[in-house]
Amino acid sequence: MFIREKKNKSGSVSIQILSKENGRNVLLKTMGSATKRPEIEALKLQAQHYMDELKHQPSLLMTEQDEQIVKTIQTLSNSDVSMAGPELIFGRIYDWIGFNQIKNDLFRHLVLARLTFPLSKLKTVSYLERYQGVQLEISAIYRFLDQLEDKYKEQLEQISFMHTKRMLDNQIHIVFYDMTTLHFETEDEDDLRRTGFSKVGKHTHPQIYLGLLVGQQGYPIAYDIYEGKSYEGNTLIPFIERIRQKFNLHKPVVVADSGLLSKHNLIHLETLGYPYIIGARIKSENEQLKQAMLAYYPYNDNQIIELDKEGKRLIVHYSHERAYRDADNRRKGLERLEKRIRTGQLTKGHLNKRGYNKYLRLQGELSIEIDYEKFIQDKRWDGLKGYITNTTLPPKELLAHYGQLWQIERAFRISKTDLRIRPIYHRLEHRIRAHIALVFAAYSISKTLETVLKKEHSTLSLKRASEITQTMYQVDIMLPDLKQKQKILLGMDKEQQELLAICQKYF
Predict the structure, then answer these.
(1) Would you give the DSSP letter of residue 194?
(2) What angle do CA 145, 148, 149 make, to 5 degrees?
(3) Is residue 411 within 8 Å of 440, Cβ to Cβ?
(4) Is 376 exposed, middle or buried (0-12, 13-18, 19+ CB in 10 A)?
(5) What is the pTM of this model?
(6) How far apart are CA 361 and CA 347, in angstroms?
């Protein structure tokens, strides 16, 4: 280190401390400036004292540039640091899909919060204030939820439909429909949340049905909500017709699981001119059809059996993989029955056809035993799955279409786990409906992100991408000359850079 006198244009002299680094002089500190020699010498003496201190405390060695950076950082407060990831990633997709046509900032905040931190509405208020700098009263959120469905559901479905159409090259020839049960942690009922027959065994909780319609690859089209006493099969026709008329759809192939299989539904679909592929309950068919299927036992892997059922095609497919799963499930079911018999938990009341109880029989007047012969005979059904259709599609193409039904089932899994749609802790019907609208929009965004991640062969999962958005921050720094704040995105690691680059490429 050394001291330098630097003459200024004003005639004064600045006293500076410099060091030699890599062949160039680096300014460490300017002690001040003066015009008179005694003052200049006094500054030089101060500089010498400062240099002596630096020799004993090297940590004090800091350039003016470093000092300026430190001073700038010291002016920052926690409120100047905000989470940028949700807007950078999910907000970008939100706009690209077209949800920004819904002119309400609160809708945007709640949907993005749903994707990043799926919390209760009260905790969402805290999240928005802490991480997004958005200050809201919980009462404002509830007022918004009270009007959300009435004001925005039609627009939400319209945007989702147009987005799905764009993602599928303007072709919506096949639609997939399914329902799930939503239950509520409350003992009260209203017209919507009636205690019904749940698919998850929670008969004591008020519940509703959520019907979801998606296109190929799982892109969402529309949803509807039904009261808990509704029979699943009665929802299909009104829902499909509403959507077809709303969006002027040419009648698409309707794909649904066996829960929607009823003679009434099939007749109604045909009368309205819909082609369909519906999961069949092959074990419930008449004896003649069952014997026709079992006549092919033992089956070859991927064997296809085609039969006539009242003028409709009954396609039955066998796979070794499915047979292994079915056999494993039957074995586990049998073991549970054996355990319950040993512990005396089974009574005459359990003699029914539900589940694996079909393997029970009465020995004498009171004793319950397992019909092992029936269990062994059921092996012939392992690996078989049936489909009823009025189309002329080749069996392999038909199987491929039905195989996409898992996309909608996966949509419900996302809704119920990653996006936590069930259970719902809202007491009023309109808030339940509003909650589902938010989840529907969030699913559209997550599905779109998942598509481009796969397209780019990224190793990032949807869950990991959501976690990454929570680690992307920005700071608001006051620019002294402009006297205004500027947002500066903090440096990113490899995963953050990858995620942002993919989103910037596609959206």
Answers:
(1) B
(2) 120
(3) no
(4) exposed
(5) 0.75
(6) 10
